[in-house]
């Protein structure tokens, strides 16, 4: 948790409203799971990088361009998945601080709805901001999400490219369909989040 050198009043018995607490719990669970998954993917990407750096894992006729493309995907997957892991941890810390930040805001009477208010016109992101999640919340969420998805896609594309270089046409086309099917939920999730 980030410590601020300036002392502020904190209501120690403060509780987040149920809707805000539910948002906090959902994001907290997502970030913790994503940190574990992206860390595992970063490890897998590292192993694939070691594999791709060994010229003995390629037939002699493999072009330099194909090997360079695989190395770019390997390095990208390591960096993107590592970044997704670190960003997940930062966001976990940020959302975990929400009750303390909201408590400080309630002491200052700055922008929190009265306790008798049942409705408020805002988005879920706006609600979290109002309770103290921070101004850069949306930017950080997008950074995390893009790194996570791009890291996954780099690994999938790397595997698919290697299959096309090594395997028969039937195996390559079949695996292209399987990888496409496997990544379909990511595309649907991305599309549903945009629309």
Question: How would you describe this protein?
Answer:
- The chain has 195 residues and is mostly helical.
- It has one domain (18-112, 122-194).
- Helix content is 73%, strand content 0%.
- The chain contains 6 helices and no strands.
- Helix 1 (18-53) packs antiparallel against helix 2 (64-96) and helix 1 packs parallel to helix 5 (137-166).
- The longest helix has 36 residues, at 18-53.
- The mean pLDDT is 86.
Write the layout of secondary structure elements.
Blueprint: H1 18-53, H2 64-96, H3 98-108, H4 124-130, H5 137-166, H6 169-194
Give a brief rundown of this model.
The chain is mostly helical. The chain is built from 6 helices and no strands.
Jot down its keywords:
195 residues; mainly alpha; 6 helices; elongated
Radius of gyration over all CA atoms, rounded = 22 Å
State the secondary-structure class. Answer: mainly alpha
Whole-number tally of structural domains: 1
The total of beta strands comes to 0
Give a short account of the largest sheet: none
Low-confidence stretches: none
Q: Please state the average pLDDT score.
A: 86
Strand content: under 5%
N→C terminal distance: 34 Å
